[in-house]
Every structure is written in structure tokens, then in C-alpha cells.
Amino acid sequence: MFQFFWTRTASVWVAALYILMGILLFVFPAASSTLFVWALAAGAGAYGLIHLIRYLQARKMGCDNPGDVFLAVLPAAFAAFSLIWPQAVLSVLPLVLGSLLLVDGVGKLPLAYMGVREQHPGMIPMLLSSIIPILLGGLIIINPFTTMQLVVMVFGATLAADGISDLITVIMEKRSAQTIQHHSSI
User: Is the N end or the C end of the chain the one with fewer CB atoms within 10 Å?
Assistant: First the structure.
């Protein structure tokens, strides 16, 4: 089960990305917050543009889809709103980040439980990778509007810790698999 999880979803690259993003959010919380909103606006704008192009191409062929217009206008409106009023987006950011942490932690709970039950070598980092995001995500959701920069710093620290924990679990899993493979070839 652990091998499937690590080869399919949480690779070393994802763990490294979590660590890098976490450090940047922790060290530069104000800039990271604004950059996050700008990146969200750019992503929404690109998504809207793709659907606008798809709509225009389909319209030329006589089989346009009004859903593509909706999927072009809505993200474009969000992008414009985010660029004009980034503070409004930042005001809900703690709830979004807290929710993301909760989803990440809860999603890893079954694997953490299996690791503890089976006394798997990567059980401690996996357990921490599940419990820490749940605790901090819950804390952020309970008290979201105290300090935006603190929330971003906590999210960054948690993201880095989650990435480090995932990376340690990957390393331990690979060592365990190599040990098993070595013993089976003897």
C-alpha cells in the first residue's frame, strides 16, 4: 500500500516542491500572499482564455458550447476581481489554506493508520504528515482573521514540515524496499 502511494502521488519532487514553497511562504509572508493572489489571477485568466479559444474554435465549426463561454467569463471575472481587490481574496485565504491543510491531513489518515497497525518503517513521518496538517489546519479555520501574515507563515512552516515528512517517508520506503529485495535475492 505504501509503495503504491509513493509511486503514484507523493513523489520526491512533490515533497521538494512543498519544502520550497513552505520556506518561501514562511520567510516572505507578505510578498508570498500578494504573489499567491497574482498567481491565482493568472491561472484563472489562463483557464478562461483557454475556454474562450475553445469556444471560438468550436463556433467556427458550427458546434459551439455555451458552457465554454461560462468557463471563460467566470475565471476572467475572478482574475479581474483578484487584481483589483487582492485584499478581498487575501481575507478568505486563511480559510482556504486551513481547509487545504485539513484535506491533506485527513487524506493521509488511512495510510498513517495502516502504517501504525502494520508497524511500517515510515509510520512515524507518515503519522506526523497526517496529524500536523490536521491540527494546524483546524487552528487556522477556528481563528482565521487574527493575522494574515502569521497564517501564511504557519501554512509555510506546515507545508515545509509536510514536505520534509513526506521526503523522509519516501527515503525510508525506498530503503525498506531495497532491504526486502536484497533479502529475497539471497
Answer: C
CA angle 36, 140, 164 (to 5 degrees): 70
* Residue 171 CA: distances (Å) to CA of 28, 150, 163, 181: 29, 31, 12, 15
Inside any domain, residue 176: yes
How far apart (Å, rounded) are the C-alpha atoms in residues 132 and 104?
10
User: At 50, which amino acid appears?
Assistant: I
pLDDT digits (tens, 9 = 90+) for 105-139: 888 888 888 888 888 777 788 888 889 989 988 88
The model carries a pTM of 0.48
- Any domain includes 15: yes
In angstroms, the CA 45 to CA 184 distance is 53
Number of domains in the chain: 1
Domain extent at residue 31: 2-180
Nearest to 15 by CA among 178, 166, 184: 166
